């Protein structure tokens, strides 16, 4: 550092350094050095020197520390930005993003004429987070407002209990409100409690399912739960079509959970549910339900059911069930869910088989005794008689068990068992309704000695009202049975798709079916004892009617035997018989006094048929039905 | 830091040897600059103004483009915001109208439902005809009555009526 070498000790001429001179020089040098260092520098030169070396080391240390810190920051940055990036962005998104559900509108259900049977309107539910209230005063205020607005369905005490019992963090205070109603209540609540920040009370969209036809169609349509999904009937069977697909939208929310405008994204539009068009006629359904209810009440039956279907097509136009003291939800759609023993209406199977085998014609004569021995049992007719001469038509029209079993014996059990399977009995009908019952037909391998004495007269087997109607539909349609449908078409995205129909099944030859249909007119015949069928009360003005009564003894659960007093009174009919349009079946469960099919069920059939003929503008029959001779002689 | 270090080292060296030549050099520089500036200004009077004036259209164009751009962006932004608000308002109106339509449809369905119609008909004194007689008119225009015309049960009790 020195500019030039420090002057050495002074030497004398002889080159000797005197001790004194050396000492003086050193002192001078020290003084000079101290003088220069004195201005602006550490007064202690030795320290000053050391501090210069410390500076360097210190800056190195500082550099190292700073670099280390930077390094740490870089490492953390890399961790955040790359390694944990996904997790952090997800966390951020979770705090900021909110996905709003865009509920799809549930589809509607229409009848065959386009009348709305079920549709959805937007509704609101009022819900609350009990913990977000600041005081019980607020809770009381909210409970009072809701209680006052919705009395008497909701009471203030109920609401307050829900807000204070601490069972749930989110409780529904009121449901099934119309949007305007809910908005009015919310305005009142917010005006009263004036929430700072997030309001403890909120509304939620909860659609309301409307059934304008009311209870008349409830067992058929079913209902929907609070989640908007079907819980029965058509609603559950076509739930996926009717529900549609919910959409969604993502928005950013602020600290209070309010959506920030202009942040909507990922918009997935909801796809509204499709519509279902039924084959039901709402007016006919209502009328049938009314008539059935009246008939059940007037006959003192426990309950009953009635069904109208097309004779030439697959359409079911009305199906009603009614039980005294039961709601439609409790009875359900019994015409497809509840098989019963049909009784004599099943005799058409025996007659059909006999016609197919050309064993009988309508006028074939039989000498029918009062009773017949079969399988170790004695079977007798519903009325006491000695040996009488009857025509085949007479046996059917008077519903003679003995005569029918005589014909069945001619057919033989094998052929009879074969014929029985052709009518769709013991099989599901394939109708688009839940819990479609197949009924019970004992297979021939399981027949006991008495089975062949029971089946031809309609005991020992069970069928639903719909299966019974199907059986007669085949007879009305030239022997071709068309599987039933209750849905005409479904519509989704404006495209209508007809439902796939079941394959028609031939149950009889056209000739046998037409002959049997003609013979069935005998049942409705009135007149003297020689010509009186079992159900003249089923006759309607201007139209030929073909039909068959049925009276099946019910099984008494107490003894496991057939009850002597309780019967199923049934009637299956075809109108008009000369040009079939409708098949109508009715069943009354235990009408008072053990009334038979002809007494209890036939008048109900007549009322329904008379209404249907006029409501559907069916032209009257060209001629009156011929009068068949039922007896050839009345015996001794 | 540099200045203080240099000052420190300067004091340690012989100040005279450094101070004199630097001062001379600076003074010379200053003088030179002064001379050059005076000469330029005098000898080339008007030229910078003219050249500056030549650049004006370009600058104005740039400013215009910038201004136009800023203005355009602001305008578009305003428009977008405005249409956003309009959309929001329209959406709200649409939602309100949807609710209104739904509630009206609900009333229509309720009033047009079969049970309601039947109830209204009963109120007016109407009764179902049931198995009534039929008037059949054939092709020749001849009419025949099928069945036995008779008053319907429960009918005839109503007051008023048309004819």
Structural features, described:
- Chain A is α+β, with helices and mostly antiparallel strands.
- Chain A has three domains: 93-118 and 208-278, Alpha-Beta Complex (Penicillin-binding protein 2a (Domain 2)), CATH 3.90.1310.10; 123-206, Alpha-Beta Plaits; 282-633, Beta-lactamase (3-Layer(aba) Sandwich).
- In chain A, the strands form seven sheets. Chain A has a six-stranded mixed sheet, with no helix packed on it. A five-stranded antiparallel sheet of chain A has the order 12-11-23-22-21, sandwiched between helices. Chain A has a three-stranded antiparallel sheet with strand order 1-8-9.
- In chain A, a hairpin with a 2-residue loop joins strand 18 and strand 19.
- Chain B has 163 residues and is mainly alpha-helical.
- Chain B has helices spanning 2-12, 15-43, 47-112, 114-123, and strands at 134-137, 143-146.
- Chain B has a two-stranded antiparallel sheet with strand order 1-2.
- Among the domains of chain B are: 12-45; 54-127.
- Chain A binds chain B through residues 1, 3, 36, 39-41, 115-116, 119, 121-122, 178-180, 210, 212-214, 216, 261-262, 282-283, 285-287, 290, 540-542, 606-607, 610-611, 614, 620, and chain B through 8, 11-14, 84, 88, 98-99, 102-103, 105-106, 109-110, 112-116, 118, 128-134, 136, 146-148.
What key attributes describe this structure?
heterodimer; A: about 625 residues; alpha+beta; Penicillin-binding protein 2a (Domain 2); Alpha-Beta Plaits; Beta-lactamase; 3 domains; five-stranded antiparallel beta sheet; 20 helices; disordered N terminus; B: about 160 residues; mainly alpha; 4 helices; 2 strands; rod-shaped; disordered C terminus
